Amino acid sequence: MSGKREFVKNKVGRRVPTIVNGKEQAPFQGAGAYRPRGVKHAPPIRSCRDYPPSGDKRVKDLKTALKKCGLRDGMVISNHHHFRNGDKVALMVLQAAAELGVKDLMWFPSASFPCQEPVIDLMDRGVVHHIEGSMNGPLGKYTSYGNMKGLGVLRSHGGRWQAIQDGDVHIDIAVIAAPTADPFGNADGSHGPSACGSLYFALADSMYADHVIVVTDNLVPFPCVPWHIQGNNVDYVVEIDSVGDPSKIVSGTTQITKSPDRLLISEYVARFMRDAEIMRDGFSFQAGAGGIALAFVEYLRNMMREAGVKARFVRGGSTQFLVDMLREGLTDYILDGQTFDLAGVQSMASDPRHVATSPFTSYNYHGKGNFASMVDAVILGATEVDVHFNANVVTHSDGLLLHGIGGWQNCLDSKCSILALPSFRDRIPVVVDEVTTVVGPGDLIDVVITERGISINPKRKDLLKAVKGSDLPIRPIEEIKDEVERLLGGAPEKPRLNKDKPVAVVKWVDGTIIDTVWEVEK
Amino acid sequence: MSRESKARPTGKPKSKARAKPAGKPRSRRKPEAIREKEFAVKNAGAGRRGDDIRSDLFVSVTVKKSGGIDLQVDSKVGAFYGASIRETVGSVLSSFGIKHAAVEVEDKGGLPFVIAARVETALRRAGCTGSALPKRLFTPKTRSARDRLRRSRLYLPGNEPKFAVNAGIHHPDAVILDLEDSVHPDEKDSARLLVRNSLRCIDFLGAERMVRINQLPLAYEDLDEIVPESPDLILIPKVETAGQVREVDARIKKIQKARGIKDPVWLMPILESALGIENAFDIAAAADTVVALTIGLEDYTADLGVPRTKQGDETLYARLRLVNAARAAGLQAIDSVFGDVGDMDGLRAWATRSRALGFEGMGCIHPRQIRPIHEAYAPTPQEIEKALKIVAAFEEASAKGRSVVSLGSRMIDPPVVLRAQRVVATAKRVGLIPAGGGGEKAAGKTGGKKRE
Q: Least CB-CB distance to A32: which of B112, B443, B452?
């Protein structure tokens, strides 16, 4: 890192750097305020004459492909995270690069997982300079203690597309692991022994990277149908033994929470949606695969049946529970960003009403609109939420960076964004006076539902009015915070952070910096 | 507080380094070797440890003669509450007047009152005398009435802190902090202090605060610790004679008198044997603080030597006998628990039948059992409708000075009116009689957030 780092205070009052990894940055200016101008980024012009007319782009191995792509020091390498904790390809690529002797790569995954812990070794050896993507678990800890050379950059799924489109990130080589592909490079996520659902987290990479490599363990003769990734964007195809561990790609079953307290939260969410009349014929919602979200879907389904109400669409991450709704006719469509269990994978592969969506259609700031703002309600989690309704999903209250953003920020654009979370975990407060890291601005967070009551953002007078007279426990958020602090023995101590040393920045969906993650003092 | 327990029947120090005999005054001058031996005089541990432990801690204490306080804290929440943990431990030590000790805390997120209870237990196990009441965080606004609703009572294991904190949010009519069967015999001392502290620090959100004590004579130690915290009701287990109830009642009143506590502590004897059932009426009438009788069916069926079934034919006689005895003494009859948490239909069937037999409530072993129980013990809509008509007819007749009440072409007898009045009263208490029209809501009340 060179030069003196400057900081400015942004719209949510957080100190953020003006330069990150040598690039100038804009501070967060309020949701929807920032509108960059200019022309979208583009990959170099290619000619079909330079590619084999047979359509066969196979090369013998990954190293050969990387060399043909002109791999050299300082390049940006991207991967997708559709194989989640079962992914083998990202590590394979970075280790191959290490063997080829290159240094200072920037790794640009759409998300990282604990299985990628060995990237720490590659960072120690100087092969990888820094990561722009999610930093989960061990990678987050490594970053938090100030061990990474560059600054980590955390982006949402939509923000990643935005950064690629407006040129904030230029991908040199995209390596796309595919459960099924043909020699031309058409690639599909929904079939094959390592089926994971869609491949759309890699779609922008395939369109905007200088070079694109498809890696598969299930090569089929042309054409590979459907093609989530178009071979027309692909330079090389590599066949390997296994792209991932199927048992870790999808969980097989996703479990509803058994905790009575969390079940109560889930029920409050469903009742809130019913009583506020968000649940009505033709409505839509999005819920993740966490225990609370799954249980919520179960409660809501029963209420929908009772009321004779049907959704127009639900948004995935899909699970067995959403698939059941589709089959039962409680929703017309599943618009699915990723599949969390086998039922989701199978349904997407076989049911035309179960549609794969990309971060472009769902979330992108530079699109001419996106789906997120059309969703009636979204149910999300968080590590912390504060009395200003600001929320955190990336760090814990001790300051450690442990999670990525995923689609969380993008979803806040829904007509009603609901955080469903316990007010404390053991002796760790979740409802606090000020979040450690602002990832979502309070302006966009409408409802906080805990086991100790439901707080509605005072800005949403319409919601307050809608549930007036219902028997839901509606309470000011300060009251819940005070109650939790009384129980836990006062306000928690603030984390010991080195506020002179940023280790990562959190981008808002528009590319501005909403907060800084600081080094945690040991 | 004066403690008269000499020999603690259970709750021995777990530590291998057993406490030395209580230190009697000895001669001032001693060889160096003996001083060295004296250095660590009392050692004990309390609490729980292991990977699956949550919201609890393990404390080990070595009380010394010199060297000050050496406090080692290893806590999952050290980053947020490290200072608070040290302060809590320090305040318990100072309440006991201990100035020299080595204390090790292995904490998995225990709340302050849990930490205090564990440290106090360890100190007592090490042979120290004293008490360290945590600051009271909560005082119930109202005392429980003799005849309050007792449809559901949620059992909470007395030595497990993690369930009690949020028990109130599920709105059972009562919680039972259990010192008896859910607590290992070696942990009775530990549970007693945790339950005492829970009564001071947890807001059960209007649920009646019940404590199930152990059988006599262990019950005395429980009462000494618990009664000063004014629980609403004490469940007395395995009662077979009226004398047992009177002993407990006398002890409670003695403790209350000594402390100037006026509010009554209600009693609910649990009959769990054939003999107990035979003596049901005597037990019901044993003391003026007895408000309800209940039955423990696991022990009762064991006493009979028959398996317990989901239909409960084998316990029908006992349960009916108990209902009759309770009603004869003007008390509530409360049913046992339904043990299969996964079988909601079975639970509903049991509770519906139980209400039909005359019971007014039953126990819960999981929060998810609460709602079905409340629904089952509530009058049905048909019952309420009929009762309202009868009560209205009765009031109309009274207003007109008629002694005969009739509804349509039928004459209504006084006991029918009485029963109808009770149904209406219950329906009002559980909020089933609507208070004015519901009103229709317009579709689509919410707009959506404003955007730039």
A: B452
pTM: 0.90
Rounded CA separation A3/B49 (Å): 50
- Within this chain, do residues B420 and B357 fall inside the same structural domain, yes or no? no
Note down the domain range covering B371. Answer: 152-376
Residuewise pLDDT in 10s, chain A (522 residues)? 444 679 999 999 999 999 999 999 999 999 999 999 999 999 999 999 999 999 999 999 999 999 999 999 999 999 999 999 999 999 999 999 999 999 999 999 999 999 999 999 999 999 999 999 988 889 999 999 999 999 999 999 999 999 999 999 999 999 999 999 999 999 999 999 999 989 999 999 999 999 999 999 999 999 999 999 999 999 999 999 999 987 887 776 677 888 999 999 999 999 999 999 999 999 999 987 788 999 999 999 999 999 999 999 999 889 999 999 999 999 999 999 988 888 999 999 999 999 999 999 999 999 999 999 999 999 999 999 999 999 999 999 999 999 999 999 999 999 999 999 999 999 999 999 999 999 999 999 999 999 999 999 999 999 999 999 999 999 999 999 999 999 999 999 999 999 999 999 999 999 999 999 999 998
CB contact under 8 A, B82 and A30: no
The domain defined by A260-497 folds into Glutaconate Coenzyme A-transferase (3.40.1080)
Inspect the interface and report whether the beta carbons of A487 and B137 lie closer than 8 Å.
yes
Chain A residues whose beta carbon lies within 8 Å of the beta carbon of residue B84: 489-490
Q: Using CA atoms, how far apart are residues A64 and A432, in angstroms rounded to an integer?
A: 52
Q: Given phi > 0 = left and psi -120 to 50 = alpha, else beta, which region is A263? A: alpha
Return the residue matching tokens 């940023």: A502
CA distance A352 to chain B (A): 30
Among B51, B200, B53, which Cα is nearest to B117's?
Answer: B200
Cβ <8 Å between B451 and A373: yes
ipTM of the complex: 0.89
Q: Do B452 and A30 touch (CB under 8 A)?
A: yes
* Same domain? B215 vs B362: yes
Cβ separation of A427 and B81 shorter than 8 Å?
A: yes
Using CA atoms, how far apart are residues A186 and A189, in angstroms rounded to an integer?
11
Per-residue HEC secondary structure of B355-389 comes to: HHHCCCEEEECCHHHHHHHHHHCCCCHHHHHHHHH
In this complex, do B84 and A462 lie within 8 Å of one another by their Cβ atoms? no
Residue contact A261–B80, C-beta within 8 A = no
Write out chain A residues lying below 8 Å of B368, CB-based: 260, 263
CB contacts < 8 Å between A and B, how many? Answer: 101
Q: Which residues of A touch B111 (CB under 8 A)?
A: 427, 487-489
Would B27 be classed as within a structural domain? no
